[in-house]
Amino acid sequence: MLLSELMKDWPCTLLQGSIRQTVLGITESSKRVEEGFVFIVRKGTICDGMEFIKEALEKGANTIVVDRVDLDLSYIPKEITVLRVPDSTLFVSYGSAKLAGFPGEELEIIAVTGTNGKTTVSHFIGQLLEAVGCRTAVIGTTGIYLNGVLKEHVQDSMTTMPAERLHPILRDCVDQKVTHVILEASSLGLSSNRLAHCPISVGILLNVGIDHYAEHGGKQQYIEAKKQLIRLAKKMIVNEDDPICCDMCTEMASEPTYFSSAHINRKPYTANELNVPVLGKHNEMNARAAICALLSLGYSFEEIHSVLSVLHLPSGRLQRFYKDGIEVYVDYAHTPDALQVVLEALRDHGAQRLFTVFGCGGDRDHEKRPQMGAVAALYSSHVILTSDNPRSEEPSQIILDILSGTAGFSTPIDVLLNRKYAIQYAIRMAQDGDVVLIAGKGHEQTQQIGGNVYPFCDMEEVKRAFINKNRADRDS
Asked: What are the tens digits of pLDDT across the range 167-216?
């Protein structure tokens, strides 16, 4: 596409160069720049795109786009086009959509946001739509799925991918005859306008917890980020059991569809009437949200109810492994609310003893750590604290933060910083009839320690732990 065509409907100021040149791609990451690309300069929370202009030019960028005044751009060669736009985040969203031919307009897009449950609800919607005959794609934390089959892992487990990557994927969905796309919409993705030019038919607001407060600068800023979905979606589905979610929708022009633990779209339905084949009351709520999505798309409750039996949990969400009378569950629960509902589900499931292995991620959300410690101590028979993704933080300090919430509980608590050894220890202690929960990382295949990323999968470590336990038992 010619740069002049790309910029035709967008406010901009030409600072130097020409707009009569061919654009082959658009990116805000200097690592992804190729010959003929437009490089969007954006100021992030950690890095400033200004620092990477020279790298982008070396890789072949022919256009630089900025959104700030009084910048020193004198070092940029005169043959390179430089444009100023009002907002770089909005422009990369618009430009990516236009370069891909606005594929979202050819799809029914459902976007799901919430502190907890986004992945499960997204997959439930995909499973139900597939069961009623639709060709679906689910895009989120665990990867890109086409009709339930994993096609591609998402880099860095990013919940909502940048617009420059999303719109080409949506174009590919159109080419593969997909009719419905279900997206996980993170607060960070919404606040940075990644979905600004992605037409959303149905938005779903699940819940609002404390996760990511720090990344947004506070609770209200986090809520405002979630509110972006209300502005983008044609129809909204809202959890009526969550007062913050309800408050967020008071200014909506049209009435949203509500679900709760007692009703769906204001019609009462008990758990027995729904008969959802998944473990946990929180997953029943997730199913109710998914049912509402199909109702909003025009399907009858009778059609939906007839296919509820297809529902199953995605990878890393109460993922079960059973051996030697011991049940082990791997789950992504990494917030106080999520950990509580998972532990409640397992306790109600009838465990003889419940062992919980978990840690907290580094460089974020310090305030949730003692809360998670208290939740684990309250619901578990035994707690093993370990590392999650400590990142640049000292793992032992994270553990101390968690331990501060366990004061006053008599629950035995052990600390093993090495996650592999913590999992092995829990499996070794567990006996016939016991349940072990490995929480916090779920589907993740890596662990971030310091500046390094290492291969690590909780479920694979569980399997190895049983092999080692059986070997030790034989040797004894």
From this structure: 999 999 999 999 999 999 999 899 999 999 999 999 999 999 866 666 66
Sequence length of the chain is: 476
Could you tell me the two tokens for 420?
A: 């592999």
10-14 CB contacts, 8 Å cutoff, 24+ apart = 10/85, 10/91, 10/94, 10/95, 11/85, 11/86, 12/65, 12/83, 12/84, 12/85, 13/83, 13/84, 14/81, 14/82, 14/83
- E runs forming strands in 163-256: 180-184, 200-205, 233-239
Closest CA to 387 of 412, 407, 358, 414: 358
* Cα distance between residue 307 and residue 130, in whole Å: 10
Go through 422-444 and write b for each residue having 16 or more CB atoms within 10 A of its CB, e for each that does not.
bbbbbbebbeeebbbbbbbbbbb
Contact indicator for 123, 145 with CB cutoff of 8 Å: yes
Domain architecture of the chain: domains with CATH = 3-98 (3.40.1390.10), 102-310 (3.40.1190.10), 319-475 (3.90.190.20)
CA 191/CA 121 separation, integer angstroms: 21
pTM of the model: 0.94
Q: Which two tokens stand for residue 301?
A: 């409750």
From the list 101, 100, 61, the residue with the least C-alpha distance to 83 is 61
Does residue 81 contact residue 3 with C-beta atoms inside 8 Å? yes
Q: List all residues 6 or more positions away from 393 whose beta carbon is below 8 Å from its beta carbon.
A: 362, 363
C-alpha closest to that of 137 among 155, 149, 154, 121: 149
